[in-house]
Design a protein that fits this description.
Blueprint lengths: L1 E2 L24 E6 L3 E3 L2 E3 L2 E7 L4 H5 L6 E5 L2 E2 L7 H10 L6 E15 L2 E2 L6 H9 L9 E15 L11 E3 L3 H4 L9 H11 L3 H13 L3 E3 L4 H8 L4 H8 L6 H11 L18 H22 L5 H20 L9 H14 L4 H12 L4 H11 L6 E7 L2 E6 L5 E2 L5 E4 L5 E2 L7 E6 L5 E3 L8 E3 L2 E6 L5 E3 L2 E3 L2 E3 L2 E6 L5 E8 L2 E3 L1 E7 L5 E8 L2 E2 L3 E7 L5 E4 L14 E4 L2 E3 L9 E6 L5 E4 L1 E3 L2 E3 L3 E6 L5 E8 L2 E3 L3 E6 L5 E9 L2 E3 L3 E6 L5 E3 L3 E2 L2 E3 L3 E6 L5 E2 L19 E7 L5 E2 L8 E5 L3 E6 L3 H11 L3
Parallel strand pairs: 1-10, 14-16, 15-17, 16-18, 17-19, 18-21, 19-22, 20-24, 21-25, 22-26, 23-26, 24-27, 25-28, 26-29, 27-30, 28-31, 29-32, 30-34, 31-35, 32-36, 33-37, 34-38, 35-39, 36-40, 38-41, 39-42, 40-43, 41-44, 42-45, 43-46, 43-47, 44-48, 45-49, 46-50, 49-51, 50-52, 51-54
Antiparallel strand pairs: 2-5, 3-4, 5-6, 6-7, 6-8, 8-9, 8-10, 11-12, 13-14, 53-54
């Protein structure tokens, strides 16, 4: 018999939140097993398969393993249909309190292996076989034996509370009034929701659900943004806070201070002394060296808590985390336990880095991008011919000045200033500090390696291109990307093309990743994890201020659901945590003008995963949103998703019918389209759909709209993970001729479904609806 002190369930199972007790958890993820199971003389019709066991929980200490199949709970078999077994196990857990014990009967298949009669532990003996073979002489042989055994075990486990994080320390989250400088206003839809839940007798369910969400953020890991807790406590503040997120200050310094605020970091003031112009090239180089020194001092303070050995470990583990998240977003299931252990160590070390000082270092370098200084620098360096005309060594790397010819920059440097020409940049990013300033020309930036083109890894990297139709080509962690650092790509003008692999085009892990394009019709292509993508501790923002743009984030990896032709995306305003390890960061894709197209794979276009907060905001134009599964204001597992389109006749489409404000498992989502004759094509779990205690709000503010797969119903169902209810609101305001698939009588109606969904098509404004909603409510 295997015993355990505490067992915690990270994902699938929980109990109803009550003020008197903390929810109990069992530390595994699982799925239904529908086939008959036999061991010896006993048989079981079906069971629940354990898919993963979270490390450092009592489930692991008890000896539970991935692949185990639970066939009895407290001596009782599952009295239900096979597909309902997971829900029944959840109900059994919810009947207990933290500290109670549960007895689980588990069927386990094991592989007994030996080489030359010697037992070989572990999942496979092939490495031992290969070693023996390598040492054989010609004519020798080695015997290998493998035997599959099946046994029935009884595991006694004491249920524990929800784990907060494995990767870094936890903290008590302060009240909202201590987090925000001023209270965030609630969206007006809150008043309508509260009137409706009261009218239909669902107020107690609504308040219980709100209490459950608030309890999630009583304690969180040190990387969880405090504003995330604010929304979990007050879900209807999400629109106001997302609009604050999308304010988009006009200077790099202001944008960095904005990012610092969202990462709960102080914005310490740097030197305010203006940079001098009217200097010789050598004098400019000495002045720039002084700026580098100021930035380097801030960088040293940022990493002061890490030894040189720990810094090296962080650098070498970033690629491992990148691969691990690519292989399976639920990284705790990683079969490579050594890799997983290193990633846990990386998260813990990254949490000790002072991100405020990293931002301060970036703000120091950004002083060199002041418009007046750049104009003077251009004038002072003019007339020196083509190519490189000054190279100066400093303690922080080289400073390089080049003229107006077509220059090939192959070597890394701390600072490169290029006055013009169609230049070619192929050098690696200087670490820890890098600044490239290109003032003219149709340039190409090409990297056949990772960490390039404004890639801040354990440091700061900035790339500023002032003019020209430029081409950017990167692989991984590039084009305004930060992995425990700050990375900023700022392109001021031109019709530009951005292409990258993954973790690119504004991506961040424990730092700030920015891609800002001020003008032009631009094309953005990323294979996944890009175009505003934030991992724990990260603030990532892609901001395009003008032009007709095309965003594409998919095309390489099969989506995690295994559907042929459906790719993974994880981009376009997507923030993801490492489930059970550390909360996600904050991600933004903001397009301020133009007719735009957004195409992406699964988990994209304004959404979050595991305490991540993802936002997509489009200010104008007749736009097209083309998603797959979990798209267009989505959230899964204690996360936040937001999409807002301010104007235009827009088209929203999802391939797999999951999106357009869909809230799954204790999450909050809003999709707000303010105006225009819009078209929505999504069914199934879409259009303000909520499950497992989610809150989903879908609001169309006007126009004659078409709902191609919705017949006038809201979906709020499936609450077996935690008990309780969800909240779904579909609200179409203004216009009384909207088209609903198969339901011509859906206009001018309010309908309520259980657990609790509200559909409301109203020929009026929201203030008037608050006074007259009983007129349209179907009884």
């Amino acid at each position: 018999m295997l015993h355990a002190a505490r067992v915690v369930l990270v994902v699938c199972l929980a109990c109803v939140v009550e003020a008197a007790r903390e929810p109990a958890f069992l530390g595994v993820t699982m799925s239904a097993w529908a086939n008959e199971l036999r061991v010896g003389e006993q048989s079981f019709p079906f069971g629940v398969r354990i898919d993963s066991v979270t490390p450092q929980t009592a489930a692991a200490k008890a000896g539970l393993r991935a692949g185990d199949i639970i066939v009895e709970v407290d001596g009782r078999r599952f009295d239900c249909k096979p597909g309902e077994a997971v829900a029944r196990l959840g109900e059994a857990i919810r009947a207990h309190q933290v500290g109670d014990t549960m007895k689980l009967t588990v069927l386990r298949d094991s592989l007994i292996q030996s080489v030359a009669g010697e037992a070989i532990p572990g999942p496979s003996a092939w490495e031992a076989v290969e070693k023996r073979i390598a040492g054989l002489a010609p004519g020798e042989h080695v015997d290998f034996r493998a035997e599959k055994q099946r046994e029935l075990l009884t595991v006694t486990a004491a249920l524990g509370p929800r784990p907060v994080a494995l990767g870094c320390r936890t903290r008590v989250i302060p009240p909202n009034d201590q987090i925000l400088p001023a209270p965030a206003p609630a969206d007006p839809t809150q008043r309508l929701v509260e009137a409706l839940v009261t009218e239909v007798g669902a107020a107690d369910d609504y308040h219980a659900q709100r209490a459950m969400l608030a309890q999630l953020v009583a304690r969180r890991d040190a990387l969880c943004p405090l504003r995330t807790a604010c929304v979990m406590r007050e879900p209807f503040t999400l629109p106001a806070l997302s609009r604050d997120l999308a304010k988009s200050p006009g200077t790099i310094d202001a944008m960095l201070r904005h990012a610092a605020a969202w990462l709960d970091q102080p914005a310490a003031e740097n030197s305010t002394e203006p940079l001098r112009v009217g200097l010789s090239p050598e004098q400019h180089a000495r002045q720039i060296e002084g700026v580098l020194r100021e930035a380097h001092e801030a960088w040293q303070r940022a990493l002061a808590k890490l030894s040189a050995e720990e810094r090296a470990l962080v650098a070498e583990t970033i690629p491992l985390l990148s691969d691990e998240f690519r292989d399976d977003v639920m990284i705790q299931r990683d079969p490579d336990r050594q890799r997983f252990a290193k990633v846990l160590r990386l998260v813990g070390l990254a949490a000790r880095v002072d991100r405020g000082e990293l931002i301060r270092a970036a703000r120091s370098l950004a002083r060199l991008l002041d418009a007046k200084y750049l104009a003077g620098l251009r004038a002072d360096l003019a007339g020196h011919g083509a190519g490189v005309f000054l190279t100066q060594d400093t303690g922080f790397g080289k400073i390089v000045f080049a003229g107006t010819g077509d220059t090939w920059h192959r070597q890394a440097a701390a600072v490169i200033v290029d006055l013009g020409g169609d230049d070619f940049y192929t050098g690696a990013t200087q670490q820890p500090l890098s600044l490239i300033i290109d003032l003219a020309g149709d340039d190409e930036y090409a990297a056949t390696f990772a960490q390039a083109q404004a890639a801040g890894r354990l440091g700061v990297a900035i790339l500023y291109d002032e003019a020209g139709d430029d081409r950017y080509r990167a692989r991984r962690w590039g084009q305004g990307a930060a992995a425990v650092g700050v990375g900023i790509l700022w392109d001021h003008a031109g019709n530009d093309s951005y292409r990258a692999g993954d973790y690119a085009q504004a991506a961040a892990l424990c730092g700030v990743g920015l891609l800002i394009d001020d003008e032009g019709d631009d094309r953005y292509d990323a294979e996944r994890c890009g175009q505003g993508f934030a991992l724990p501790g990260g603030f990532a923002a892609l901001i395009d201020r003008a032009g007709e743009d095309h965003y594409y984030c998919k095309g390489r990896d099969l989506g995690s659901y295994g559907t042929p032709g459906i790719f993974a995306g994880w981009g376009q305003g997507c923030a993801a945590g490492l489930r059970g390890v550390a909360s996600g960061g904050v991600a933004l894709l903001l397009d301020e003008a133009g007719v735009d197209v957004y195409e992406a794979g699964n988990f994209s276009q304004g959404g979050g995963y595991y305490f991540g907060w993802g936002t997509l905001v489009d200010r104008s134009g007749n736009d097209r949103y083309l998603g797959s599964r979990y798209a267009q204001a989505f959230a899964a597992h204690q996360a936040i998703g937001y999409l807002e389109d301010d104007a235009g006749n827009d088209i929203y489409r999802t391939t797999r019918d999951v999106g357009q404000s869909c809230s799954w498992d204790q999450t909050v989502t809003f999709l707000i389209d303010r105006a225009g004759d819009d078209s929505y094509s999504a069914g199934g779990f879409a259009l303000g759909a909520a499950a497992h205690n989610g809150i989903a709000v879908f609001l169309d503010g006007g126009g004659l709209d078409r709902y191609l797969k919705n017949g006038g119903r809201a979906r709020a169902s499936g609450n077996d993970y935690h008990g309780g209810t969800s909240l779904s609101l579909i609200l179409d305001l203004g216009g009384d001729e909207d088209l609903y698939s198969g339901s011509p009588a859906a206009n001018n109606r309010i309908r309520h479904t259980q657990e609790h969904g509200f559909f409301a098509d109203l020929p009026t404004t929201l203030p008037e609806a608050l006074t007259r909603f009983q007129d349209w409510l179907e009884r």
